[in-house]
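Researcher: Here's the sequence for the chain we discussed earlier.
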Amino acid sequence: MRRAVIAFTAFLGGLIFLLASGTPAAWAEDESLRGTLQYQGRPVDGVKISVTSEDGQPIGEATTAADGTWEIPVPGPGTYQVTIDQSTLPPDLELRLKDRATLTLEVSEGQQRTALFALVQKGQAGDTGGGGRQAAAEPSMWEQAAQLAFEGLNLGLIIALAAMGLSLIFGTTGLTNFAHGELLTLGALIAYFFNGTVGLHLIPAAIIAVILGGALGYAQDRFFWGKLRKRGTSLIAMMIISIGMALFLRNLFLFLFGGEGAPYADYNAQQGIQIGPVSATPKNLWAMAIEIIVLVIVALALLKTRTGKAARAVADNPALAASSGINVDRVIRIIWTVGGAVAALAGIMLGLSQNLNYQMGFHLLLLIFAGVTLGGLGTAFGALVGSLVVGLFIQVSTLWVPTEMKNVGALLVLILVMLFRPQGILGRRERIG
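Model: Thanks. This is the structure I predict for it:
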């Protein structure tokens, strides 16, 4: 019991330390301009926003993410002009007030000032006085809930891809890998390199990124984690090492990629498809289909193949599996390879729904741990179920809580699960002593 308490305390301490030790720029209350572009409560993505100084000097630009959000840091307090590029709006939408495409806003010290652009259907725009504008019907609560549930399912599938790899690695090695979020970022940035720099289409760039993600996952265990296991390094020490690796990789990404976000060259601005009360872009529908297919393939491989059965045997009892003739090291390396490839795919899918940045995997790490913990540590199918619940919960919760606070629900999930069902939804109780 004492050993279990020490391990759990170290886990929570490591999580708190990692979340508190991000690059200071990520947490500092610097000045910025931000906003959320929506139409009838539904986000509008792929729209370009630019900011200039009062005398017209360019400051920065951004593209609205899948949830309609955007943010542009500014160098300090002052007066700035925010301009929306109307040519990037969906074909069926326009500004409600066409003479308000540029807003002049004053930013105070430490302030994150919000800029709002109202949208209406084509042909319903009016002038500053409001003449000729028709009132747009507000969506009902049930329509908003359906839209948020769809977005939560999309987010949950991305979390599930990452959480399944993390859970399998924990199940076979006992390692709580705090650098797993950086595997997502790495996959997304590799795809961006081949897509935005080399000039490949995103689909072959994504395939290359997934292959390289799997290769890097194999190399991690072959040349690093495997060496530590053979030396008898404790799991707590390895967990602390993973925290250091996460910090190193995150700052390496910052050095190589820069601090500004950027979208992929393909599939940026797409018109939404209305499916009942839900509005979805084609890229999101395709991404969800790919995510489901990959999750089904991994699940079938675990259930039907010899390697999958060996992986489950190693997760249940490594010593017994080794005595039965299973090559435990080989199985663990296959799991690391699959985990790295699936994490890279999750990062690419996340990059389709938002701008890429060097902290994208780190920001998803809490949700990944929440999904794994809720489903049951070490169980691949538990990670899938837990991730879907977490994704749905945090998105639908925005009906009642501010969007900025939705991830707090993930912490609430962690606390409640640890209090009332520490083994998770699909986890098994273990007898101690």
